[in-house]
Design a protein that fits this description.
By secondary structure, the chain is of the alpha/beta class. The protein folds into two domains: 244 residues, TIM Barrel (Alpha-Beta Barrel), CATH 3.20.20; 74 residues, Non-ribosomal Peptide Synthetase Peptidyl Carrier Protein, Chain A. 49% of the residues lie in helices and 16% in strands. The chain has 14 helices and ten strands. An eight-stranded parallel β-barrel has the order 3-4-5-6-7-8-9-10, surrounded by seven helices. Strand 1 and strand 2 form a beta hairpin. Helix 11 packs antiparallel against helix 12. It is globular, with a radius of gyration of 20 Å. The mean pLDDT is 94. Flavin mononucleotide binds next to strand 4.
Length: 329
């Protein structure tokens, strides 16, 4: 069931995707509580990371003993910056260094970082070589299928990466130009799998347990990576792992259990960021956890208006009590 990445065995073939603004330490902790799946950090811009002890560092202020195993994802266009940032993160305790060659954001690709590197395989190779030379931990790479539908060169980039010593490839089954439109092409990922011997992880649009199974079948990948499907349900990854292991569906937690997970998640966030910033950052998570619950829209506004942890928890409790009553009626 597990996957060997370099000399490290990860126990489940289901990974939490790197997601800026989502997979911070609090979210990683709450996902880890549900099961043993490998988690990725948010993308860290290597140049900013080296230049300043500001936001990306504060957001990435982690405890590597507790936050283990962790793939730290770096983005950048300068091989030296990338190597230095990789080395610092290795020294701090990163289990893996993941190189981002998939980010489609304009501000990233205009500097020839993220998915733009799929248009410049020479620079991509230099970055890979430089990072691999700098660290001893396994280096992994996340990419898209290519820049656009006429240039889907993920198999070529994967082969270059493997030859340089990259130990695992993740492919989001869309091109850069597709951004998040259309659907992820799981069968195309099989071409990447066919090109290399290292593990390949398939990513994109896995929203149900059955999607995960179908994606594995079509992509022939060694594992799956889950991004948006984990919003408001950090237990989803472990449900997939259990299903792949046993063929049996593990039900989602009861509403009451879900509430406790949310409260714990909020506690992590407010402790890490302080009430003011934490409550603001937590809004989207609260909305995801409670989406579709009866009367939740109104109750969420009350939650967002609170100014202390105890008031916030009272309102969360109220939201779930009202929802439970309405669902039982
Ligand atoms: C809010 C958000 C932030 C993301 N940030 C990153 C990132 O920092 N690094 C990265 O490689 N991919 C990032 N992605 C892409 C995801 O890792 C993933 O490849 C993509 O969402 C497709 O998977 P999904 O359909 O399971 O969400 C982000 C996606 C979203 C929605």
């Amino acid at each position: 069931m597990g996957i060997r990445i370099g000399d490290i065995e990860v126990v489940a073939p289901v990974f939490l995707a790197p997601m800026s603004g989502v997979t911070d330490l609090s979210f990683r902790k709450i996902v880890r509580k549900q099961g043993p799946e490998l988690v990725f950090s948010e993308m860290i811009a290597s140049r900013e990371f080296l230049k300043t002890e500001s936001l990306s560092v504060r957001k990435f202020n982690t405890n590597f003993v507790e936050d283990y195993p962790l793939a730290v994802q770096l983005a950048g266009w300068d091989p030296e910056d990338m190597a230095l940032a990789a080395k610092i993160n290795e020294d701090r305790g990163a289990t893996f260094i993941d190189i981002n060659m998939g980010c489609p954001a304009k501000k990233v690709v205009k500097r020839y970082a993220g998915s733009a590197l799929m248009q410049d395989l020479n620079l991509a190779k230099k970055i890979i070589q430089s990072v691999i030379k700098a660290v001893n931990v396994p280096v992994t790479l996340k990419m898209r299928t290519g820049w656009n539908l006429d240039h889907r060169n993920a198999p070529e980039l994967a082969l270059i990466a493997e030859r340089e010593g990259v130990q695992m490839i993740t492919v989001h089954g869309r091109t850069r130009c597709q951004l998040y439109k259309g659907v992820a092409d799981w069968p195309f990922i099989a071409q990447v799998k066919g090109a290399v011997k290292i593990p390949v992880i398939a990513n994109g649009d896995i929203r149900t347990i059955y999607d995960a199974k179908e994606c594995l079948e079509l992509s022939k990948a060694d594992g799956v990576m889950i991004g948006r499907g984990s919003y408001g349900r950090p237990w989803f990854l472990n449900q997939i792992t259990k299903f792949l292991e046993t063929g049996k569906i593990q039900e989602a937690p009861s509403l009451d259990e879900q509430k406790l997970v949310l409260i714990e998640h909020l506690d992590y966030m407010l402790t890490h960021y302080g009430f003011q910033d934490g409550a603001k950052l937590a809004r989207k998570h609260i909305a995801w956890y409670t989406k579709g619950l009866p009367s939740s829209g109104e109750a969420r506004q009350k939650i967002f208006a609170t100014n202390s942890l105890s008031a916030l928890i009272t309102e969360v409790n109220d939201l779930y009590s009202i929802a439970t009553e309405k669902m039982a009626a």
